[in-house]
Amino acid sequence: xxxxxxxxxxxxxxxxxxxxxxxxxxxxxxxxxxxxxxxxxxxxxxxxxxxxxxxxxxxxxxxxxxxxxxxxxxxxxxxxxxxxxxxxxxxxxxxxxxxxxxxxxxxxxxxxxxxxxxxxxxxxxxxxxxxxxxxxxxxxxxxxxxxxxxxxxxxxxxxxxxxxxxxxxxxxxxxxxxxxxxxxxxxxxxxxxxxxxxxxxxxxxxxxxxxxxxxxxxxxxxxxxxxxxxxxxxxxxxxxxxxxxxxxxxxxxxxxxxxxxxxxxxxxxxxxxxxxxxxxxxxxxxxxxxxxxxxxxxxxxxxxxxxxxxxxxxxxxxxxxxxxxxxxxxxxxxxxxxxxxxxxxxxxxxxxxxxxxxxxxxxxxxxxxxxxxxxxxxxxxxxxxxxxxxxxxxxxxxxxxxxxxxxxxxxxxxxxxxxxxxxxxxxxxxxxxxxxxxxxxxxxxxxxxxxxxxxxxxxxxxxxxxxxxxxxxxxx
Amino acid sequence: xxxxxxxxxxxxxxxxxxxxxxxxxxxxxxxxxxxxxxxxxxxxxxxxxxxxxxxxxxxxxxxxxxxxxxxxxxxxxxxxxxxxxxxxxxxxxxxxxxxxxxxxxxxxxxxxxxxxxxxxxxxxxxxxxxxxxxxxxxxxxxxxxxxxxxxxxxxxxxxxxxxxxxxxxxxxxxxxxxxxxxxxxxxxxxxxxxxxxxxxxxxxxxxxxxxx
Lengths: 476, 212
What we know:
heterodimer, A: mainly alpha, 22 helices, disordered C terminus, B: alpha/beta, 7-stranded mixed beta sheet, 8 helices, globular, TBC1 domain family member 25-like isoform X1 (chain A)
């Protein structure tokens, strides 16, 4: 099962079995298969980003100077656990990438005050709601003792008290406190949804990562922190509220950052970025993107899964919504999570893609062509996690072809959990991603290279582009 | 391992009522007090014997939260049996039964056998829903009813097996069209000469032992 585990990526030619489909006449498949093999032999993983590397990213004001390189370094090797919390504060939006050291100090103090104000607000909303159960909603139902207050549980030396050292700082602090109150007071909420969310959160917190030391044991103070963050988020994001799986995302952030306030803001930033994935339409949409991608990259496997009755790919849903958390041990899972969050490949290729399109548009306009907008699934929606999912399936396609129905496919996928080598699959996923980009570019160039009059070329170029788009918008 | 019939089940109900624990108790005969919450759909299987015949139960365990329903709903379709679970210590899980039932009836085939389960009888002191209420609800909606404890295993076997018996009886009565897999019933490999998808001779082993 895990025959790829110890092999180094550069020697691994297992993706060549993609060519298996040649025999069935999938010529398109063989081209992408060849491209993938070529990419695998040329790409490699790097060492994790160290503190020394990270410090070199800042100028004298403490401003991060090369975002692109930072993303690339994270993507290529992940982050050394020792410097991980510092990197994550940037990666998950607690600090803007352009901020100076001085700005970050104030920002952090502000984050503490705002979070505290938000937390107090939902508690007082519930207290004033007149609900007989208000008390059990404010404090966790499973808290037997009253020792469950989570205030300042995991806050190191507070940036607020650091600021209060000088009289100028104190004044600033007073002003920030008022601002935080106003900010919290402005947030929209829905009392009934909030109560509903709390009930589910109280069910989920006691079963979140209980096997990890950080959350082990009954009445572990971290459970209360987990709960307060989830409720504070859900209270003021009424559109998304709380969705199961968020607890898994947050627990990981809590362990890495080890600060209630920082975990809250990083979690909020992350969920706001992908919040659609946590509501029903978003889930359906994500799986439909995955289907489209698999269909393009390995149509034979896609069709076979259809025969097994699982071409909806629901068996991949957990992978995507939890960033593959349950498929790997803690350290590998965290590493994969930050690599996915670096969005290096997508941003990089998106830039190239945008340039390419702009140029083509310009040429077309110069020729007097008439532009019209097309509702397409642009390649930017194919985020890297989708490529990882496709790569895992392609990597185990021989096993999947031996499945006979939905049940055996689910069993097959369940057995992959904890049996995937993270570096190996990252290598392959990157190769699949790059091959996919090369193939798309190739498709366009093929047409442009045709000897014909300039207008004719452009016309055909657009037709092909439309076809590619049409293919991507097709839903099954 | 070969079987005479394969029945597909689905387990539904609010989050935290013990769906995954019931499944684990039935398939592995163990109780896991802290069970990872189910994201989307998970799967379990076990062989039982009814009327001297080997019957394979293929059980789809679903996430309870509303937002996952768009994903889990498609599993209603091909199910012959459903376990609709509530928690006897939480009334809200009982009051939500109507919605679950409507959802199940709307998305499944009309002959699907539904077993209503009041779980967590080990927590008698915290009981919030009387057994009679469960019985009344089941009677009113034409469901079979049992109270179980996934923790002590009380009635767990019976819940899964009685549902299978009911399906089996319906087959005997000719209510189910067993040649239509969309009904959640499949005839075992020794009863059907060939299978369209599997290499010949390997299906029995595949279905029993998985694919990899």
